[in-house]
Structure formats: structure tokens, C-alpha cells
Amino acid sequence: MARCPIVRPETVRVTLADGEWLELAKELTAGEYREMFVSQLKDAPMGSVPIMDMRQVGVSMVLAYVKEWSFIGSKGEPLPITRDWLLKFDQQTFDEVASAAGLHHEERDKAAAERKNGRTTASTSSAT
Q1: Which regions of the chain does DSSP assign to beta strands (E)?
Q2: Do β-strands 21-25 and 11-15 pair in parallel, antiparallel, or remain unpaired?
Q3: If you ran DSSP here, which 8-state letter would residue 24 be given?
Q4: Side by side, which strands form the sheet with 66-69?
């Protein structure tokens, strides 16, 4: 049976404290997923062990999942979803946004694992 492997650009809304909200990607594409993890690594010489860039942990997940948010600037303008603006947030707001994105990510990974484990057909091709 054929299936479409393309991720549809759907979002889910998460409500934060004080009525703020985030629109999160329901599912990341393979490219977005890989970019999220690769952006957490420091550049290292070829063949060496990758090193985590702790400045990017949390930030890369927020930038991968958050598609819209209700945050505004000092003049009432919508804040763009960028690394620069995210890092200007107060620590409590950053933690809340990162936590919401992280929880959503964990739920998506769990759901994917359950779908994989619940498959009734073989996931590998048979030997030829």
C-alpha cells in the first residue's frame, strides 16, 4: 500500500502563562529535525567527537518547532521568531517557551515510536 511520506505543515496551539500562546509545528520534516540537532553542535575537525554547543540547547528546538507566537515588542509590533529575539527574552519566559517546545518534541517522538512498534507490516524490504 502506497503512502505519502511528506510532512503536512500543520500546527498545534499551546497556551502559556498569562494567556500567551505558541503555534508549534505538529511534526518536523526530516530536514528540520536534523537541522535542530546539528545546530546544537560546535564546529569540530573532521573525524573528531562532536561537542555540544550549550548556547544552542533549547534554542534550536524552539526555532525548529515554533511557527508563530503571541509575543510583541515594546511598540506593540509582533516579535519575529529569531534566535536574536528569543535570547532577549527574560529567563522565565525563555524557559517556559523552551519547556513547551521540549514537551511537544517528546510527545511527537513517543507517538512516532508507538506507530512504529504498532505496525503490522514489515518495515524492511525482503531479501532478493
Answers
A1: 11-15, 21-25, 66-69
A2: antiparallel
A3: E
A4: 11-15, 21-25, 66-69
- Tell me the C-alpha to C-alpha distance, in Å, between residue 66 and each of 50, 55, 57, 110: 26, 18, 15, 19
Confidence label for 127 from pLDDT (cuts 50, 70 and 90): low
Q: Please check the confidence at residue 125 and state whether its pLDDT lies above 60.
A: no
Say whether pLDDT at 124 is over 80: no
Predicted TM-score (pTM) of this structure:
0.82
Q: Are 6 and 17 in contact (CB under 8 A)?
A: no
Q: How far apart are CA 106 and CA 40, in angstroms?
A: 17
Q: How many Cα atoms sit within 13 Å of 120 on the Cβ side?
A: 1
More confident position, 128 or 108: 108
- Are the C-beta atoms of 38 and 52 separated by less than 8 Å? no
- Half-sphere exposure in the Cβ direction for 49 (13 Å, CA): 2
- Rg of the chain on CA atoms, in Å: 18
